[in-house]
Each structure stands twice: as C-alpha cells, then as structure tokens.
TrEMBL record:
Any one of the GO BP annotations: transmembrane transport
Top-level division of the source organism's lineage: Bacteria
Membrane topology type: Multi-pass membrane protein
The protein, known as: Amino acid transporter
Keywords: Membrane, Transmembrane, Transmembrane helix
UniProt organism field: Streptomyces murinus
Compartments where found: Membrane
Coiled coil location: none
Length: 498
C-alpha cells in the first residue's frame, strides 16, 4: 500500500519499529495475570457465602469439580497452543478448527466477553470502595468519581510495560491471597467452631439439590483463566511457559477456592454455617476473620478487596488490549489500534480506546441512575461471563477438528478424548449458568433473557460480517488468523538510549 504525503513520518515510525516486548513474562508472571483476573478474595468474600447458602457444607467440592473440568479443557487447549501461535488466542484456535466465519464470530464474541468482564467491574470497584470507606471512616462517597478514577488508574497501568503490570499484579495478588491464608491459619489454629470436620467431602452433602447452583457459581469464579495464551508473544519460551501457567492457574484456583470455602465452613461449624450465610452473606468473611484473627484483619480485608478488584481490572484490561492489537493487525479493527508504544512496548492506542469505551458505559449507567452493583456490575458482567464460556466451548470443539485435518505427532488423549470430554462438561456448565441466571443478576425475566442472548447474538452477527469481509475486503478475510511471520524490529532511539 502506498504512503501518502499526509501521513507523518513520526506517526509511522513507532508502529514500524516497536513490537510487544518478547521474553518479558515467565510462568509466574502469566499466572499472576490469570489468577488476578479471577479476583480470588472478591470471589470468596462476595460469592462463596451464596454458594454455601444454596449448596450447604458440600459447596467446597463444587469448586474442585469446576477446576477439574477446566483442567480437562486445558489439555487440548494447551496442546493446540503449540501449533497455533498467533496473537488471537481463542479466535485463532476457532478459526483453525471451525473455519473463518466461526473465527470472526469468535473474535467479536471475545471483544464482548472481555470488555463485559472488565467494564462491569468498575461498578464493583465503586461499590467495594464505598463499603470500605464507610466501614473504616464512616464516609459516604458518590460512586461515579470512584469508577472514573479507576478507569484512569487502570488505563495508566495498561499503558506501562507488561513487566510493570506483572510486578504490580504479583504484589496485589500476594496481598489478597495472604489475607485469606491469615484467616485460614486462625481457623486451623483454633480448631474451628466445633473442631475440624471433613463432612464437606461426604457424597451425601455434595450431591444435593443446590449443587447445580454451586457449580454455576464455581465455573464463573474461574472466568479469564484461559487468557494465558494471549501473552504468548511476550512469554519466555512460550511452548513451555504458556501450558505451565495455564495448569498452574487452574490448579491453584481450584484448590485454593475449595480450601477457603472449607475454611469458612469450619469457622462457623457444619450445623451453623448455612444459617450464618443466610443471615449476613456480605459480612460472613469479615465476621469470621474478626473472630479468629482480630478486627484489624477485617479492616485489612476491606482494603484488600478494593485492591483485588483493581488487580482484576488491570488483568482484563491487558487481555483486551492484546485482543484488540491482534484484530487491528488482522485488519478487522482499525489498524491504528495496532500501534505499540516505542518505549513501554504496550498496545497503548488499543488501551486508550478501551478506557474511553469503559468511560462511556460507566457514564451511561450513571446518567440512567443505575446502581453500580446491581446494574453496572451484574448486567454488564453477565453477558461477558457467558461470552467467555461460549468461547471456551467453541475452542474445545475446534481442537479435535483442527488435529483431524493436519499432520501431527500428538496423542489421541490430548487431541480427541480430552477435548470431547471438555466439550460435554463445558456445555453442561453453560446450561447450569443459564439455568441459574437469576442468581447472578437478580433481574427480571425479560432482562435475564436479553443478557443471556447477548453473547450468542454477537457471535451470530460475526457470520454475516465474515461474509461481508469475504466480498468487500477479500485480502483481510483470506489472511485472517493465518499467522504471518512477524519481522524482528530494530530498536527505537528511545530504547537505544535506555
């Protein structure tokens, strides 16, 4: 394509020279991004009491079962990641296995899923910050300034280099998991309310009517774990690092969630925990840590819930930026969004665009006098969560389809058995989530129907969009997710000076 004189040389130079920073992330760094996106402290303090209320003392096993399901999915997912090495992650996998129309639909679905998971959480940030300020200082603050301040803070974090984000997330993740470990230590040292019990593992307590609801909550708690593949271009030895980070994240989350929920059961006792969860679900974990550790620890938990939300926001923001970067490089999104900062090596224009989109959504909900938790969080998060689960399902289906068409040396366990089993399990998980959608949203049937349909509708809209690309922009359509070789750039003057 020719370059016109209206294109300034200084505008073209950074995009021609700068790339994402390769070799920046190790296994632990990528795992920090993934686990931080899941927000373990927020999930435990905010959602686990509801799982206990609905599923009883067998709730911890629900998190183990969800973790096992996603570990099965990870087998085929990480195997395919060794063969499909582009930056598009989910949509690249789905394109290779199910064709370009499905892949383009998946790309739109990924944008909905990750943006929904992040933007909605600005409502949670406002709600959690207000609760923390009220609990610690008795102050009541409006929610809009908190959300907007969060947008600016996260935007800056995404603008900086990826290793800066990894270090920051590492600190925040240690803080939020540390406070839960402190609670666990206090409960174990004091022997719980009535002595430690393993009754939570008994089949009679696991297979109860409320288990389906527990599983729905549990699967939602892992949302975002698959984003390990998004960081392939910045990973050290991605063929090893990405699979290790994926298994590490799934294993840690499954075991840690189950352990912490079991600790909560022990803190109140097998016969009292359901009553405690029903009486004060929002304050259940604060009551437990005050009893077993002290009021100062409850104050820290309030603070760390806010930092947990910030960590989740930054992790999803970085994931969104890299999806947008990949789609800009494909030509599906405006190519300007593919510009990379010459110093920080971040997709900064994609980050700015995402921050602006987040501000528009937040301001729209504020103008409509919506509640930051009940509407902004739940109504925006829910389509995002369903969208990411649908992407996981499509990716699981794509794995055996891909390996059936190419020559490879992988075993059938990784390329057929595990992906097919994962397909069945993930489809079941989606049915459970949709069947209990009212527990996630608290909304009317009409609103719930719209929230559930948003993700499949966006995917289906990708099919006519793919047809339009094929007719109007055939070069974009034909090169979609084909992984062209990326040239190694020369250092920019800024980098040389450093």
């Amino acid at each position: 394509m020719s370059v016109t004189t209206s294109e300034l040389p200084e505008e073209k130079a950074p995009s021609a020279a700068a790339t994402l920073r390769p070799g920046s992330l190790g296994t632990a760094d990528i795992a920090f991004f993934v686990v931080s996106a899941a927000a373990p402290l927020t999930v435990m303090a905010g959602v686990a009491p509801l799982a206990i209320l609905l599923g009883g003392i067998g709730a911890p096993v629900g998190y183990l079962l969800a973790g096992l399901t996603l570990a099965v999915f990870a087998v085929g997912f990480t195997t395919m990641s060794r063969h499909v090495t582009g930056g598009g992650a989910f949509y690249a996998f789905i394109t290779r296995g199910l064709g370009r129309p499905a892949g383009i639909g998946a790309a739109l679905l990924a944008l909905l899923g990750y943006n929904g998971m992040e933007i909605g959480v600005y409502g949670l940030l406002a709600s959690a910050s207000r609760d923390t300020l009220h609990a610690l200082f008795g102050a009541d603050v409006p929610w809009l300034p908190v959300s907007l301040a969060g947008l600016l803070l996260i935007g800056y974090g995404g603008f900086r280099s990826i290793d800066f984000g990894a270090k920051l997330l590492g600190v925040l993740l240690i803080a939020e998991t540390g406070i839960l470990v402190l609670l666990a230590g206090g409960v174990l040292l004091k022997g719980g309310a009535h002595g430690l019990s393993l009754a939570s593992l008994a089949p009679s307590h696991v297979f109860v009517p409320g288990t389906a609801a527990v599983l729905a909550f549990a699967f939602a708690a892992f949302t975002g774990f698959e984003s390990t593949v998004i960081y392939r271009r910045e990973a050290r030895d991605p063929g090893r690092t990405v699979p290790r980070a994926t298994y590490l994240a799934v294993g840690f989350l499954g075991l840690f969630y189950a352990f912490v929920v079991w600790i909560a059961v022990q803190a109140f006792g097998d016969d009292q925990v359901v009553r405690a969860a029903g009486k004060d679900p929002a304050g259940m974990f604060f009551t437990a840590i005050t009893t077993y550790v002290g009021g100062w620890a409850a104050d820290l938990m309030h603070v760390f819930i806010v930092t947990s939300v910030l960590a989740s926001l930054l992790a999803f923001h970085n994931a969104i930026n890299r999806y947008a970067l990949a789609l800009a490089e494909e030509g599906v999104l405006p190519r300007r969004l593919g510009r990379i900062h010459p110093r920080h090596r971040s997709p900064y224009l994609a980050g700015i665009a995402q921050t602006v989109l987040g501000a528009v959504v937040v301001l729209a909900f504020w103008a409509a006098h919506a509640d930051p938790y009940q509407q902004l969080l739940l109504w925006v998060n829910t389509p995002g969560m369903i969208g990411l689960m649908l992407l996981q399902l499509l990716a699981a289906i794509a794995v055996p389809c891909y390996f059936r068409r190419v020559r490879h040396s992988e075993g059938s366990l990784r390329t057929v058995v595990a992906p097919v089993l994962a397909t069945v399990l993930l489809a079941t998980a989606i049915v459970l989530v949709v069947g209990h959608i009212d527990l996630f949203t608290g909304a009317s049937p009409v609103v719930n129907t719209l929230l559930v349909l948003a993700a499949p509708v966006v995917f289906l809209l990708g099919l006519p969009f793919a047809w339009w690309l094929r007719r109007s922009r055939p070069e974009v359509y034909e090169s979609f997710a084909t992984e062209p070789p990326t040239p190694t750039p020369t250092p920019t003057p800024t980098e040389s000076a450093e």
